[in-house]
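for the recovery benchmark. tokens below, seq after
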């Protein structure tokens, strides 16, 4: 993959359930400043791999490193270390305004409240700062959830199904946002069932099938790989 310095390194990650390896010796890197897609068909092991990386599920084998140091412990400890995680269908706090949603993680790390305004501006949500978050559109809610992740100052951001339930216009805005975050030096790892949208956001792809890495590399190479077409994209892609 890229020769850039990796922020996140996964080596030999393995998880067995019922005697079957649902994640089988998976290795890849997420370099700083790059968007990497962990992609593949349903049941490929993508979400389980995410859960292993963030500490929600314990691996049977393998190692995970963030900026060269072993990444272990529960989710909150990994977040403190610099791992950001946006789970699928991530919920917002009930009854709070858009700005208040950001103040909670900022206060938790002792950051000034004014940082919420910068995060809102970066997310294009300043006009909604005092609005109830429950009234936002799907795309706006997703941008707010990402801003809330960024309030923890991650160095690598994991996004599970970020395009789910988002209309095409909002999807394009999210793609631009992810690429902008990478340009600022973040490593971004995403997984999504929407192949075209995911590929448009990524610099590199790791293709999983039945828990194993089938192929990896730049988007153009993986999209043209016969194995990717046979197992995931289809012949008409």
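predicted aa per position
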């Amino acid at each position: 993959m890229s020769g850039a310095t990796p922020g996140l390194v996964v080596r030999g990650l393995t998880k067995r359930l019922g005697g079957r390896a649902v994640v089988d010796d998976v290795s890849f890197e997420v370099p700083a400043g790059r968007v990497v897609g962990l992609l593949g068909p349903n049941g490929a092991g993508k979400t389980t791999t995410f859960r292993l990386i963030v500490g929600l599920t314990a691996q049977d084998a393998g190692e995970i490193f963030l900026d060269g140091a072993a990444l272990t412990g529960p989710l909150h400890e990994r977040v403190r270390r610099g791992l950001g995680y946006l789970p699928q269908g991530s919920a917002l706090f009930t009854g709070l305004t858009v700005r208040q949603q950001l103040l909670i993680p900022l206060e938790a790390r002792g950051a000034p409240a004014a940082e919420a305004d910068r995060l809102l501006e970066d997310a294009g949500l300043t006009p909604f700062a005092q609005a109830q978050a429950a009234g936002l559109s799907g795309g706006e809610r997703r941008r707010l959830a990402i801003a809330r992740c960024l309030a923890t100052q991650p160095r690598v951001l994991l996004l599970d199904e970020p395009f789910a339930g988002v209309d095409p216009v909002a999807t394009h805005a999210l793609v631009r946002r992810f690429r902008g975050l990478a340009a600022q030096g973040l490593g971004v790892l995403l997984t999504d069932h929407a192949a075209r949208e995911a590929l448009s956001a990524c610099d590199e792809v790791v293709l999983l099938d039945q828990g194993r890495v089938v192929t990896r590399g730049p988007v153009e190479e993986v999209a043209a790989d016969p194995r990717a077409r046979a197992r995931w994209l289809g012949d008409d892609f």
